[in-house]
Amino acid sequence: MNKLIIWYGELITGNKLLKRGVFFLTPGMLWLVLFLVLPGFILVLVSFAGRGTYGNLIWEFSLENYTRLIGYGIFGWTLDYVYILLRSVWVAFVTTGLSVVLSYPLCFYIARKPPRTRYLWLTIVIIPFWTNMVIRAYAWFLILAPELPFARLAAFLNLVPAGMPLYPSAMAVYLGMISMFLPFVALPLFSSIERMDWTLVEAAQDLYASNFRIFMHAILPQTLPGLSVGIILTMVPAMGMFVIPDLLGGAKYMLVGNLIQQQFGASRDYAFGAAISIGLMILTLFSLYLYKRKNRGIDLI
Amino acid sequence: MKKINLLVAVSALSTMAFLYLPLMAVAFFSVNDSKYGLEWKGFTLDWYVKLFQNDLILQAASNTLVLALVSTFVSTILGTILAIGMDRFPWPGKMNTALDLVMHLPVIIPDIIFAAAMVVAFGFLRTLTSVFDPGLLNMIIAHITFQTAFVALVVRSRLAGIGKEIEEAARDLYAGTIYMLMKVTLPLLAPGIIAGAMLAFTLSLDDFVISFFTAGPDSITLPLYIYAAVRRVVTPQIHALSTLVLMVTVILVICMERITRKVNKKQKRL
């Protein structure tokens, strides 16, 4: 290692070079290890601890939090928590799916605009992407109020009693979630669609392919990289979302994010909260793994 | 084909309406001269004036700004140095993978899990010293953590973009390490650093979950204030506040777009 080497124009020994590298890495990595990796390990440890009477942690190793998560409690066996976990996966899945379906026409439309106005249209999609999620959830809160046309229409159709808002409900959660995550799919997808080779589509049309087959064989493979990034960017935060179900779903449509927040807030049961977090993490990694296995060779970013 | 084009246009425009209708409604009711209910009673800017007389809101606005500025400043420095350290040295493959993994953690972890880990970790630190009571310091630390990773990712992709040839030329002309960093690497990197800093700043302004878990009673930020207000009772002041935040977002996004487009144009000319 102490031999002289030439590293991009510099005559230096390997040791010296590595020392300098460590010097550069240390501040950032030290910070990330201290405040990201270490807390992660502590979270795992805490998930095996118990809860004292006043919400303090009791350091006795137990699997109780995990058995509680899959349903064994003091009141016997219930599937409440499992339902919430599965529902979170389902909501994330539906949100991602519908966002993809809505994103394709949106991106095609923008990509076909002349270059001068194209970026203006794109900015229109970027603005909601960067708007604070509390404000966006709150905007849905407002628009589903009983005085406004949507709730009135629903009342007129006898879907809800007159004078009632359209939240809390599953539909409100889906509306909020899709509007929240649609830009997360649309923006990466657009970068793929913008670079798409349309001559392949024309070729498929010349060969009398049906619209469905044109999409499957000429469009989808070309847009897969952007689509993958979009799906991952949506799936992961959607599973842990808690603002939207909290404001628009209430107790009627709880997701795992609310459950975690409850443990760290009102219930002060850090150990159980940690266990749910680890559960969510495992679910997230598992779905990423499934996705990666199906679509090999796709980079995360 | 014409039919499909029409379908695409209709679907695209209604999607945009779907994204914007709720936001428009908030802006619309923020200038409505009615304290209760959602009936149109005429135009007023009273609610905006009242915002600037509300001490709680002013305090929240200043907290939000301090948090975003301080955390962006620190994370931009940490992230840039980290990116140079990762990209410019011959690390063995396994170490590279490990570094890469740590850097991608904040991107692939749902933010609520990161927030939970922060709560637990700060709980531990609190047993050592009361400095870590829930409050602005905790929030700044938490924000720096996820921002550093994002800044490092952006700067590293720019480092890869500019290549090592120019630095090699500088070395051939006997530039020392510091001289090369100051005169060659950093100037070339500047657009990437600015882009990373802007990303970090917007991420901080945008964050709710992590602030929600780490904030104390004196360190309420604007999103936290709006959230608490929505849970209690919605007043027109909240419409006005949300509209203002939305307008700041619009301005930030337009600035960000301009800068990245200018950088891209320059890069093409190189």
Features:
A: 301 residues; mainly alpha; MetI-like fold; two-stranded antiparallel sheet; flat; B: 270 residues
Explain briefly what this protein structure is:
Chain A is mainly alpha-helical and 301 residues long. Chain A is built from twelve helices and six strands. Helix content of chain A is 70%, strand content 5%.
Structure, described:
The complex is a heterodimer of chains A (301) and B (270). By secondary structure, chain A is mostly helical. In chain A, 70% of the residues lie in helices and 5% in strands. Chain A folds into two domains: 66 residues, no CATH class; 217 residues, MetI-like fold, CATH 1.10.3720. Chain B is mostly helical and 270 residues long. Chain B has one domain: MetI-like fold, CATH 1.10.3720. Helices cover 81% and strands 0% of the residues of chain B. Chain B is built from eleven helices and no strands. Chain B is globular. Chains A and B meet through helix 1, helix 3, helix 4, helix 5 and helix 7 of A and helix 1, helix 3, helix 4, helix 5 and helix 6 of B.
Total individual domains of chain B: 1
Strand order, sheet with most strands of chain A: 1-2
Q: What's the CATH superfamily of chain B, by name?
A: MetI-like
Q: How do the helices and strands follow one another from N- to C-terminus of chain B?
A: HHHHHHHHHHH
CATH topology value of chain B: MetI-like fold
Task: List the secondary-structure elements of chain A in sequence, H or E.
Answer: EEHEEHEEHHHHHHHHHH
Low-confidence stretches of chain B: none
Count of helix runs of chain A = 12
User: What is the CATH C level class of chain B, in words?
Assistant: Mainly Alpha
User: What value does the Rg of chain A take, in angstroms?
Assistant: 25 Å
Give the radius of gyration of chain B: 23 Å
Using a beta-carbon cutoff below 8 angstroms, give the protein chain pair with the largest interface and the number of residues from each chain: A-B, 88 and 97 residues
Q: What are the segments of chain A in which pLDDT stays under 50 over at least 5 consecutive residues?
A: none
